[in-house]
């Protein structure tokens, strides 16, 4: 009798457990999808520098992602400019859409902004974007709903210089950075593209070869920059 009761109790517990799991799954899949910035948080800043002098305009893309599943129709992600932004539309940026399309079948897209090299002599400007809830999406992870883009005409040390660029170019300095732009014909992008690591190895050797013949003077450190590293 006791054995029979124990079996019944275990059966009931397992049944309740299965019902609970099914209910959680139902709530998970029926919950409204949410959107968030997938590569930056409110503590991060994205820098775009015109210091190379190679461009007067460029496009910055800030990835956004959803919590939820893809569907077979286009959906809209809403974004607004935070009023504390110092960047001015039509002067420092343009072509910013307040509604970004997430195409059918996708769970990730990007907010594209054209930045312009105008009126930066008095200092950097900041464009702060806030995601907004919409008919299609709620707001996702707290802390990943705001993105800050800093537009400047000063050189900005790439966030990935210490690793891995230092392996190919040695220690960072603004003087060496300017030389890299001069020899390469382009500045380092804000995010590292691992597909071009081999190119950086080649360019690093080119910078090394130049500095073995022609050291350059660094006004910031008041020192000569030489080929003082071993390129890979």
TrEMBL record:
Provenance organism: Bacteroides faecalis
InterPro entries, per database record: CalX-like_sf, DUF4843
Signal sequence, start to end: none
Gene3D superfamilies xref list: 2.60.40.2030
Name of the protein in question: DUF4843 domain-containing protein
High-level lineage: Bacteria, Pseudomonadati, Bacteroidota, Bacteroidia, Bacteroidales
Superkingdom assignment: Bacteria
Xref: PROSITE patterns: PROKAR_LIPOPROTEIN
């Amino acid at each position: 009798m006791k054995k029979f009761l124990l079996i019944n109790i275990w059966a009931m517990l397992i049944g309740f457990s299965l019902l609970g799991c099914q209910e959680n799954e139902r709530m998970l899949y029926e919950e409204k999808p949410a959107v968030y910035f997938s590569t930056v948080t409110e503590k991060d800043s994205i820098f775009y520098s015109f210091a190379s002098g190679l461009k007067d305009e460029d496009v910055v893309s800030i990835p956004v992602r959803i919590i939820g599943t893809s569907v077979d129709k286009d959906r809209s992600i809403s974004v607004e400019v935070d009023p504390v932004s110092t960047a001015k539309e039509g002067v420092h940026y343009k072509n910013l859409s307040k509604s970004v399309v997430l195409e059918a079948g996708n769970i990730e897209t990007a907010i594209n902004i054209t930045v312009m090299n105008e009126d930066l002599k008095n200092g950097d400007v900041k464009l702060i974007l806030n995601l907004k809830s919409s008919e299609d999406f709620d707001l996702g992870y707290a802390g990943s709903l705001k993105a800050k883009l800093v537009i400047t005409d000063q050189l900005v040390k790439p966030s990935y210089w210490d690793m891995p660029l230092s392996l190919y170019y040695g220690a960072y300095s603004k003087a060496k950075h300017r030389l890299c732009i001069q020899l390469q014909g382009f500045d380092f992008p804000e995010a590292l593209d691992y597909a071009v690591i081999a190119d950086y190895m080649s360019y690093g050797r080119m910078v090394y070869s130049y500095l073995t013949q022609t050291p350059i003077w660094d006004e910031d450190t008041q020192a000569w920059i030489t080929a003082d590293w071993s390129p890979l």
